[in-house]
Amino acid sequence: MDLLDEFDISIIKELEKDGRMAFSAIAANLKISNTMVHQRINRMIEQGVIGGIKPIIQEKKIGYDWASFTGLTLNKDSDSERIIEALKEIPEITECYYVTGSFTLYIKIIAKNHEHMRRILYEKIDGIPGIDKTDSIVELGCAFKRNISL
């Protein structure tokens, strides 16, 4: 059995249009009950299909004009869990991925300016024991970002 049925997919599509949409409005648009919408959204959140409903912050609008994608090479890959916990303590790191290839981890860093980025890299990240080196690519802008199509 598929995890999502046609009603779940329709509800998600409505939320993608406006995450603040009232359950009653979704129900009216889909011609289903408000209770059904509420139950299905709660179930999808509990199952982890929907990671929650939260605002999408536009970093540049609040003064964070720089971003980088940074690969991390570790001294020992077995230290990755400890290093990830240390990275979580740096609020400017917004994403962290396990990757294959030259790096063990790939992170996204959001900074106010180049000096702020330098401090994050040299004073915060380089100070984490077990990180051998970093290699950063500066982001020049996002062409698009979207959810997977349902």
From TrEMBL:
PROSITE patterns: HTH_ASNC_2. Gene3D superfamilies: 3.30.70.920, Winged helix-like DNA-binding domain superfamily/Winged helix DNA-binding domain. Signal peptide: none annotated. Coiled coil: none annotated. This is Lrp/AsnC family transcriptional regulator. The lineage of its organism: Bacteria, Pseudomonadati, Bacteroidota, Flavobacteriia, Flavobacteriales. Keywords: DNA-binding, Transcription, Transcription regulation. Residues 4-65 form the HTH asnC-type domain. It comes from the Bacteria.
